[in-house]
């Protein structure tokens, strides 16, 4: 039964997926709201651009699913919330899964649920909470036929102080990705490695689980498109980008350029030309 929903997530011809993450408000950080302050307008723009999926928290899922018609993006439901992203961190860090996560996903007609697997220096309690969340949700997913996407993130202290950033160290990413696969992930959403040439290792240790590459913080269009082409060439099954789409000067144009890379195998240079032509028109 999980394969039925995965068939709706991944394109039938290319076998790839562009999932646009617009669940950032779930984490309670004002800085994450740039580009999605007006969620109905943001969803309007993204639906018109036509990505394969939108990643939303339960409170915003109806903005997508209440729309009539069969052509809208599929819903990927965020099922956990953590307080590890701010610059001023509280004394107690947590990662909590929502109640009846898979039941909510079924009722919302989601094609997948996503949950974090966080690795933070000197905070094994957060890692343990994430493992518990994954195991509990995975068991419910098996009963309901709901695919499980696990998001393994390796953190390090933020340069300049204040909180953490995810890192592209392949040694840490590979271990977390393999744990996600061993815990029963049907899809893995992982950070890019610092050297895109190392990403084949991530794909190999996850196999046969498909890997979608996380976008992370805002970068230039040139870097984003080059990185996307590199990880696709290494065997990634798609991408999950948020801020690099929703904070773009033209979210619709960058979405369509990325979709062309995934589903029509455009080069980074071809996608850049398409983006320039469309964004400038």
What do these coordinates show?
It is globular and about 50 Å long. The protein is an alpha/beta fold. Helices cover 41% and strands 19% of the residues. The protein contains eleven helices and eleven strands. The strands form two sheets. It has an eight-stranded parallel beta barrel, surrounded by seven helices. Strands 4-5 form a two-stranded antiparallel ribbon.
Short description:
This protein has 281 residues and is an alpha/beta fold.
User: Helix and strand succession?
Assistant: HEHEHEEEHEHEEHEHEHEHHH
Largest sheet: 8 strands, parallel, barrel
State the distance separating the first and last CA atoms. 44 Å
Radius of gyration: 17 Å
**Overall number of domains:** 1
Q: Which of globular, elongated, flat, extended, rod-shaped describes the shape?
A: globular
The CATH superfamily appears as Aldolase class I
Structural class of the helix and strand makeup? alpha/beta
At CATH's second level, what is the architecture?
A: Alpha-Beta Barrel
- Number of discrete helical segments: 11
Strand content: 15-25%
């Amino acid at each position: 039964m999980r394969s039925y929903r995965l068939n709706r997530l991944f394109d039938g011809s290319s076998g790839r997926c562009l999932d646009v993450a617009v669940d950032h408000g779930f984490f309670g950080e004002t800085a994450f709201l740039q580009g999605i302050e007006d969620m109905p307008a943001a969803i309007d723009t993204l639906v018109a651009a036509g990505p394969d999926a939108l990643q939303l928290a339960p409170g915003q899922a109806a903005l997508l699913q209440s729309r009539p018609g069969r052509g809208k993006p599929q819903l990927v439901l965020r099922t956990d919330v953590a307080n590890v992203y701010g610059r001023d961190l509280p004394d107690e860090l947590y990662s909590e899964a929502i109640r009846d996560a898979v039941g909510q996903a079924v009722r919302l007609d989601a094609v997948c649920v996503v949950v974090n697997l966080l690795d933070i220096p000197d905070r094994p309690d957060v890692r343990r909470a994430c493992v518990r969340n994954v195991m509990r949700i995975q068991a419910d997913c098996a009963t309901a036929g709901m695919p499980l996407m696990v998001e393994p993130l390796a953190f390090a202290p933020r340069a300049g102080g204040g909180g953490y950033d995810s890192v592209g160290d392949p040694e840490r990413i590979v271990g977390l990705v393999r744990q996600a696969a061993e815990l029963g992930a049907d899809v893995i959403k992982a950070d890019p490695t610092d050297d895109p040439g190392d990403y084949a290792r991530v794909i190999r240790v996850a196999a046969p689980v498909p890997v979608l590459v996380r976008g992370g913080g805002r970068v230039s269009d040139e870097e984003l498109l080059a990185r996307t082409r590199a990880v696709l060439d290494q065997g990634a099954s798609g991408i999950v980008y948020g801020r690099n789409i929703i904070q773009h000067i033209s979210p619709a144009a960058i979405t369509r350029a990325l979709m062309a890379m995934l589903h029509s195998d455009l080069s980074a240079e071809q996608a850049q030309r398409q983006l320039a032509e469309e964004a400038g028109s």
